[in-house]
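Quick one: co-fold with nicotinamide-adenine-dinucleotide.
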Amino acid sequence: MGKKHPITVAYGDGIGPEIMKATLHILQEAGAELEIETIEIGEKAYLAGHLTGIEEKSWDSLRRTKVFLKAPITTPQGGGYVSLNVTIRTSLGLYANVRPCVSYAPFIKTNHPKMDVVIVRENEEDLYVGIEYRQTPDVATATKLNSRGGSERIIRYAFEYAQTFNRKKVTCFTKDNILKLTDGLFHQIFDEISKEYPAIENEHWIVDIGSAKLANSPENFDLIVMPNLYGDINSDIAGQITGSIGLIGSANIGVNGAMFEAIHGSAPKRAGQDIANPSALLLSAVYMLVHIHQPDVASRIHNAWLKTLEEGIHTYDIYSEGVSQRKVGTKEFADEVIKRLGQEPNVLKSVDYASQKGYKEVKHKERTHLTSSMRELMGVDLYVYSHEKIETLAARCEQLNTPSLSLTTIFNRGVTLWPKGFRESNCVDQWRCRFLRNGSINLHSIAALMHRFADGGLEVVKTENLYTYNGKPGYSQAT
Ligand code: NAD
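Sure, here it is.
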């Protein structure tokens, strides 16, 4: 007997308790060495007044074990509740969301019989930083934040994962033809890091056509790494087209811990009927066993599960006449997997995690810090709330020029309107007024300009300083 590994388990809501019991039963019968601590999360915790869906004391367990096997939970509607997943992800620094999406043809119906794609989604940044403002009555904005460090970490993780699990190609999806700085940074770092892994093929697709290709011909992809939002959308698409989201497990890997969960929700309508498919949670538990260095048990379970699918023993969600042999409930499905422990699939590809290095901690190199001498303040964009005509607004702004900062451009949404531009464009009540320097400036120069705006009765709702980095503008240009 090896040393038992402490893990934290949450049974969740809806079908959660049933699929968790089934999963833990299989883990126990397969010989997983686990010391389980159970915590309460989800609906009960929310309704007891914990807005994040988790009690304070449960954090102690998560901090101690650093490994979390989580069943799906129900998020009550309304009431200002915060997503538990977002809370756990940010608290434990779970930067990588990994979802292997595999089809099991001919045993489970799918239009994509050759699909075997891993989606690696950045989990902490991008639009999901949740920084939103309603700046004017007409305009709400969200911040898309991509950092160099965050991008490096997820992209390196993707290549390390590919190397560990014998994936031949890493694809990157971004929208850097439009988002030149944020997605441009992600793409640039992808190009830099891919050079360190010459044995792995790499390619980049613009996310729109890339997603279309993924939905249409997933067999052309091996591993895809993406910023958060594109990863969120594409990992559900990739999961669904394998045949059922009830088959997709996930690993959330971080610097301070890891969380393993099914991608589906708590399916409240199916709760308490012993019919839910435990496969997604079971596969998540398999990834957990690899993570905690119990690869043999992981392989035993995964192979027995494949054999069960192959023999047509299916829960209702994957059952189809003429393909499946027997429709079973949650408990019976688990019993059938247990009966097959030690067996391997005949047709489907068996797994052998012990021959692989397993998820390893990805050490990333010292980050490249740009020194201040390479960063130069060029001016400022002032966002102004106004209903005035562009000519009137421009004339008022020009009067507020200071000796060191002059109005050069006015934009509305993304469109350049002054001094030249399409006046026919639909305008909103938020204007971006760009002031560029005449000589050297500092933060006091910007403060002085803002004083003049306040005195002049123009309401600035937001400012963005404009910097160049090694002479290259770190801000979008007027068109
Ligand atoms: P859902 O994933 O729970 O259900 C979608 C559909 O898939 C339903 O028809 C359901 O019956 C079916 N389904 C899902 N898992 C199944 C399984 N294992 N076996 C058989 N059928 C399965 O999505 P939903 O209905 O949109 O959400 C229900 C609740 O789950 C909501 O409160 C939502 O907030 C929550 N949710 C939680 C998580 C999580 O905890 N990670 C993720 C998604 C949704």
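If it helps, Residues 15, 19, 72-75, 85, 246, 261, 264-270, 276-277, 280, 317 surround nicotinamide-adenine-dinucleotide (CB under 6 Å).
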